[in-house]
Design brief:
Layout (H helix, E strand, L loop, with lengths): L1 H14 L5 H24 L5 H28 L4 H28 L4 H25 L6
Helix pairs in contact: 1-2, 2-3, 2-5, 3-4, 3-5
């Protein structure tokens, strides 16, 4: 079942313009992790409310990575123009603003502890770190 889900996610990412295998792999792994955290929050959230906040921030981290990676891949494959730079800046700062407002709203108005939010955002860094270490372990290092 997991293999089928991974294949469907890969096919979706390919169709959305994720042509670079490495970026697609990181995005797929983060999607799977986000789904797992959301499922854990749905099942155990009644007992461990902080799982909801981890799930929300994991989703925000995924949204930011997904959007930025998708746009950069489109940017690399096309001719570079000033409009592309403006579009990239507006999208980047727009996402940054929305993410900041969500985090501020959660902390200030809902009085959510920042720890689960940091944990959720850290999943993106952890996903990239695990991917990088697995790539490093897969290569034999030759010394001179």
């Amino acid at each position: 079942m997991l293999k089928s889900l991974k294949q469907r996610i890969d096919a979706h990412l390919w169709a959305k313009g994720f042509k670079a295998h490495e970026v697609r792999t990181i995005a797929r792994n983060q999607i799977l992790l986000t789904l797992f955290v959301a499922l854990a929050a749905a099942v155990l959230g009644w007992k461990f409310q902080w799982l909801y906040w981890v799930a929300i921030s994991t989703g925000l981290a995924l949204w930011n990575f997904y959007s930025l990676a998708q746009f950069i891949q489109h940017l690399v494959l096309r001719t570079f123009t000033k409009d592309m730079v403006l579009g990239m800046l507006l999208r980047f700062y727009g996402r940054l603003g929305v993410t900041g407002l969500v985090i501020a709203g959660l902390i200030v108005w809902l009085e959510v502890s920042p720890i689960p939010l940091i944990a959720g955002f850290s999943t993106m860094v952890a996903t990239m770190l695990v991917w990088g270490l697995s790539k490093l372990a897969g290569h034999k290092v030759k010394e001179a």
